[in-house]
User: Fold these one by one.
Assistant:
Number 1:
Amino acid sequence: MKTTLFICSFLFNLSIVNAQTIESGSRSTIGYIKSDGTIENSSRSTVGYIKNDGTIENKHRSTIGYIKSDGTIENKNRSTVGYVKNNGTVENSSRSTIGYIKDDGTVENSSHSTIGYAKDIKKEWAAVVYFFFKLD
């Protein structure tokens, strides 16, 4: 019994270690993104997935979008909804800047006001959460 409890505790802690925190501008935790692309809300309920091939899925595993290798973000119909440039600039489909994801994980709107923090999270993944898709 103790061994089972220890193993369960170890696996739970291991899953937490592999999740990066998504925070609001006031530093409140709004969710987590695990290294496997699982997106969780602040209660740790799964709200979406980003697969290795760039497919974005909702909690029901329905495809809602795609991340292309060049940083283009598409909706489920393959229409471009935005772009994430290498320097962290986030643009809408008209190429207007809508935000920035800095190297330190700070997420800013187009006016450079901080709207969140996504430290150690891929810029494209952070853009999906903060700018392009509502996952709940």
Number 2:
Amino acid sequence: MSSSSKIQKVWVPVRAPTAFNQVELPRIMSQSIEAALNRRITVSLSDITGDIRQVQLFLKFRVIDVTGGVARTRFDQLELAREFVRGLSRRGTTKTEAVSDVSTRDGALVRVFVVAVTRGKIHRSKRTAVRALAYQILEEKANKLGFDQFTQEIVLGKAAAEIFAASRKIASINTLEIRKVKVLRPPTPGFAAEELAAPPEVSGENTAEDANARPTESYEKSGVNEEADPAQT
């Protein structure tokens, strides 16, 4: 095959969404600029923030538009590294998981996986109460915030911190993490920006500054224990 018949590929620059300050992401190789549409890019949070302590948190962005030779993306998924999760498992703990589908103010549908770990056994009724509380907090937060704002609350650990602080009133929670987030439906195109200009107050009774709530250290020090749980949702 002659060299003239080979497909010429191009490197396409990629930018993160506005919620992530449109930082530069790793370039992708594509047969054409247009072919880059719908591609996904995976990076660790440390690649964006420069903080090596956040290397275990991975973000996926999907290319939604290519303008001026630069690919624009939206947030598509979050997941804690499996090795990090397994490394924090310990005997004598109980893991409670909650899976919540919530809708943001601008129409996005997001599935959020929460895991809470306690020392020793925990009564089933308390596990049910923790699951219900996690869903309640996430639903209220999503209903008040747009997709970008909700994403920031999740990635920065603020949502996990609020659930953690409230859950400790139910059971002796040792660790609570949002271990995975999936976007099931993107925000509604053309949603009126003024409708998101002044969202209601989201701090409520429990804030990210409450005792034992660690919004930025959540992914640094507290983990997800992956021991078997007979009552997973």
